[in-house]
Amino acid sequence: MEDRAKIIAFCGIDGCGKSTQLKLTNDYLSKSAKVLVSKINYSPLNKMGDNKCLDIFLKGYSAFKIISYYHDLQNEVSNYDYILCDRHLLCYLAYAYAYGIKHLDIIKKIFFMVKDPDLIFYFDVPVDVALKRISVRSFKDRNENVKTLTLAKDGYEKVMGFFDNTYMIDGTLRTDECLSLVIDKIKCLKK
After folding, report:
1. CA distances (Å), 7 to each of 15, 80, 86, 119, in order?
2. For residue 11, what are the β-bridge partners?
3. What's the rounded Cα separation, in Å, for the pair 127 and 14?
4. How confident is the chain (191 residues) per 10-residue block, as mean pLDDT?
């Protein structure tokens, strides 16, 4: 059997702690393994608004970016022990829900070529906690607000069942407690 990287995705609303946990996990794993950190980009959805033609284009462009991302990622699976994904298709679907895109189950089927990660961490936090964490950032996205984050959180709850190997972590735990849970789950992955 060909060696391939274990793909691990870090998901959750903005401000949930996923980037912090991904960095700490990378630091831990890089001591003894070859690790690639990768980030999915679906930011075109952030520009959706009242222009229906533009919105259709942005949805298509976003889908193209996702397909390109996963195509490139598949070319790397034999070069690393672990690939840590900052976000995943799960995140795209949750935020698609937040932006009013319907038929998420069909969209998941359209992306049939996207292999589910070996492990998905979903960091669950209340929206007010996420917003407090976001408030100290130097860069703020116009869509990091109560309405969008609440809808995205609802979206996660709706689409998590589309994916196997999803593990929910209380993102309000201390950073070291979250990391311990992450590392314990990764150790359970069979090499």
Report:
1. 22, 10, 11, 7
2. 122
3. 9
4. 78 92 97 89 54 63 68 75 87 81 73 78 96 81 80 90 91 97 91 53
Decide: residue 22, CB within 10 A, 0-12 exposed, 13-18 middle, 19+ buried: buried
61 within 8 A of 92, measured Cβ to Cβ: no
Matching residue, tokens 């060696």: 3
Q: What is the pTM of this model?
A: 0.83
- CA–CA distances in Å: residue 177 to residues 69, 131, 172, 174: 31, 21, 10, 5
Q: Are 8 and 186 in contact (CB under 8 A)?
A: yes
**Terminus-to-terminus CA distance in the chain, angstroms?**
11
In terms of residue numbers, what domain contains 172?
6-188
Residue 72 lies in a domain: yes
> Any idea what the CATH number is for the domain that residue 131 is in?
3.40.50.300
Residue 56 contacts residue 73 (beta carbons within 8 Å)? no
**Structural domain includes residue 47:** yes
Q: How many CB atoms lie within 10 A of CB 85?
A: 25
Tell me the C-alpha distance between 58 and 150, whole Å.
22
